Every structure is written in C-alpha cells, then in structure tokens.
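Case study 2.
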Amino acid sequence: MARTDLFHGHIGGIDTLAQALLVAAAMVQRGTLDRLREERYAGWAGELGTSILSGGVSLEELERRVAAGEIDPRPVSGRQELLENLVNQQIWAAERRAQADKTAGG
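Prediction:
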C-alpha cells in the first residue's frame, strides 16, 4: 500500500468520524432518542433495578426470586434495530443535506 493510500484512508475515516459526531451532537441536542432510551431502561428506575444497581441484592437472591416466580426473567425487546435505523436515518439525512448544499452552491 502506498503512503498516499494510507493518507487518503485516514482522511476519509476522520471525515466520517467528524460527520458522525456532528450528527450525534445534533441528536442529543434535539433529544431524538430520549423517550426511547427512557422506555428501554425504565425498569432500572424501579425498586428492583435500583437495588441491583446499588448492590443491595445478590445474584443468589435474584435467582431465588426468579425460582419463586417473583421475577419474570423473560427478555423484552430493547428495540435495538429501531434505534439503529433512527440513527442511520439521521446520518443519511445529513448526507442528503450536504449534497443539496453542494448542488445549490456549485
């Protein structure tokens, strides 16, 4: 691989990272994922979640409570794919805006 290939590869990677950070910052400022994040992690704000996070309940105690039927350990969808698609939509929208700006200016 030629030095110039490495140079261009790194520049392209840094440009992509910079664009992703700009999109991420805009999403944070707009609160794009706030409601979905709150819904996804809502259980951690409850009594069981806070006791687990604080270390107030042991793994053995959790096992006992599951075996007794006090806790339902069935997984619940975190809707990961939906979240990824929302992020991707923001990235592609930024790219479309950039292309439109280039076309309008040139």
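Residues 3-30 form the longest helix (28 residues).
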